[in-house]
Amino acid sequence: MSDKSKIQYKLFIRYLGSFKKLLCILIMCTLSSVTLQTFTPKVLQRFINATIEGQASQLIIWLIATFFICSLLQQVFLVLLEFFCTKLAWGATNKLRSDLLSHFLDFDLLSHQRYSSGEMIERLDSDINNLFAFFTTLVIDFIGNGLFIFAILAVLIRESWISSGVVALYVVIALVILLVAQRLTRNWQMDKAKAQAEFSNTISEQVNNLQVIRYSGAQSFSFQIFSEAVSKLYKKTVRGVMVYPILWSSSTIIFALGLVCAMGIGLILWNWGAISIGTVFLIYYYIDQMVSPLLRVRDRLHSLQLGQVSMLRIQEIFIIKRSVSYGNDELYDNQSSIANGLSLQVEHLSYSYQKSEPVLRGISFTLGANCSLGIIGRTGSGKTTLVNLICRLLEIQEGNIRLNNQPLLKLSEQTLQNHLVYLGQNCRIFHGTIRDNITLYDGTVSDADIYAALDALELRGWINGMPNGLDTVLESAGESISAGEAQLLAIIRAMTKNVSLFVLDEATAQLDPIMQNSLSMAIRKMILGRTAIIIAHNLTTLEFVDNILILEEGKIAEFGEREKLLSSEASEFTRLLAMG
Known about the structure:
It is built from 20 helices and 12 strands. It has helices at 3-16, 20-52, 57-105, 109-112, 117-159, 161-208, 210-215, 219-241, 243-271, 277-319, 335-339, 383-390, 413-419, 434-439, 447-457, 460-464, 483-497, 513-526, 562-566, 572-579; strands at 344-351, 360-367, 372-377, 398-403, 406-407, 420-423, 432-433, 473-474, 501-505, 531-535, 547-552, 555-561.
């Protein structure tokens, strides 16, 4: 078994194995359906022979009634098979979708950068939808029809070993033709799926940057990018379209072989006197019944191929493990210390991306509990990398970081989530009420907690001014509130968590001066009595911090208390303030 086949088998067993009861029902329905499909032609065989031999009309009537009942039951079991198979596929794919989303959310920063949002959507939506079709196709058209073919061969052995051998040879030839056609076209489907994911990402990128494209007059550039993506998708799709003609031609050959086998073997054996007219009909009926499943296999082979490709693409995601590893330690049970903020010690910290030049070089500083730190530096100086390491979005490569004198690497993920909040410059709004956007559907956060946070930030009036207060519905596209108001909601959300360490990365960037002032006041109230790290280009937003850290080319250019730096004419911070 190849590595790819092992991956598909493990993924298949992993998710279908969770629904043992449904699988048992499916097995019972499949076996009942196969039994009826095999037995019903035998009734017709007996009817033809009885009619030719002139047997009693009572027997003929009984055979007719039996055939009618068997046909009716056969349709009932086919409907049940379709229903339970669909139910099983929904259950398995929904569980897979949940696990895949959980795995995506567990990614660290570098893992997220490996896949664009469009590619992630393709994995969560298109690939899993392909697997839904794969599960139903495999059970109904492959396993069910496979058992049916084996049952036919078993019945024909009792009628005539020669006919059974010819039919078995026909089945082998038909399967070889289908498998060769599948192997020829599988890689084409893989390339097409990859091109589709890249195209979806391009569309997502263009839509997300619609305003930039429009107001910067970059429509021609956007069309060029779009045309290149369409051209690439077209080339892969054209080759993928060839899958159907190849499969159609192969199935036509199979159908022709079936007719030749049915008529040829039946005529020969009847001329020899080895079989009756009823048995000739039985052979023809069985081969015709086998042709129909093979034709359905042809029609569903496309779904099977897409399912196999999707399994491999999904497994590619599951193989990725986050580089950030957490410990199991909790913060010391010193409630007074934690309530007043956490102390932070950074020791000889260095970091580089993919063996490139170091972004950080030997960073060391100490920030006391209940103190705030403003980080300044040019673009590319390492500010965001530093806070990403503190927030454990990146794995520490060299050096150490401590919270309350405890190694950051040994703290559990839950501990960091309970005591640290990160706010970036882009705060997303989810479709839902203001309450939902503050609590993020956490039922433990009550309205009393929200209003306590609003009162602490002096923002109750702003929320009460909304059409329906906390019940005001917001749109995810950002049409309901401004970017600054979205930042205020993020600050309110952070306040309800009552954490000990706040990390803000350009939280007031891209806002107008009035909103910057409002947001700065809210931040000042939020970090009161807590430890805070604030990255800012606008130095006026750092008027309330206790300490200043200036980074330059990944090194500390200056670090100290803000008031002391202001009193020194030689201070780099003083020089930057003077420059405005």
